[in-house]
Design brief:
about 150 residues, 2 domains, alpha+beta, 4-stranded antiparallel sheet, 5-stranded antiparallel sheet, conserved putative lor/sdh protein from methanococcus maripaludis s2 fold
């Protein structure tokens, strides 16, 4: 009886692996059938005051998976999740949303952490949303703009 149960379990696992594998192959085939890759664009502007503005088109927004969240306030302090903070050149920054597809890199200072795990920060404009998913990718877009070929 026990061998019969083991055989049924092995057959079940084998079938699950086979069908999972074949489904994965279908996904690979679907991906390979694309005619053209999705084109996206970003533009980085640097201003005299040191501000950096990153503008994305709709495709780039979708590909990068950018999500924002309104800055919470508690006792006069701005609260942001840890995922909103990026480190660059020894400084700490967040990307504040300026419109639907534009984000400005803003220096912040961490003043503390709440019991809920949010960071209390200084340096944010009131009423703005910050990037909470995709902030590191926005930093990457900024750094890519610094690459100059043929210099």
């Amino acid at each position: 009886m026990r061998k019969g149960i083991e055989l049924v379990i092995l057959l079940g696992l084998g079938a699950a692996l086979f069908f999972g594998y074949s489904e994965g192959q279908k996904e690979i085939k679907k991906e390979g059938e694309r005619e053209k890759p999705v084109q996206s664009a970003s533009h980085v502007s640097r201003f005299a005051d040191g501000a950096i503005l990153i503008q994305l088109d709709a495709a780039a927004l979708s590909i990068l998976g950018i999500h924002t969240q309104a800055v919470a306030l508690s006792q006069g302090r701005s609260l942001v999740p840890e995922a909103a903070i990026v480190r660059d050149g020894g400084g700490l920054f967040v990307f504040q949303k300026t419109n639907e597809a534009s984000f400005v890199k803003t220096p912040v200072r961490i003043d503390g952490i709440t019991a809920g795990g949010e960071l209390a920060v200084s340096g944010l404009a009131r009423g703005k949303a910050v990037v909470v998913s995709g902030a590191q990718l926005l930093l990457s877009e900024e750094l890519k703009s610094q690459i100059h070929i043929g210099d």
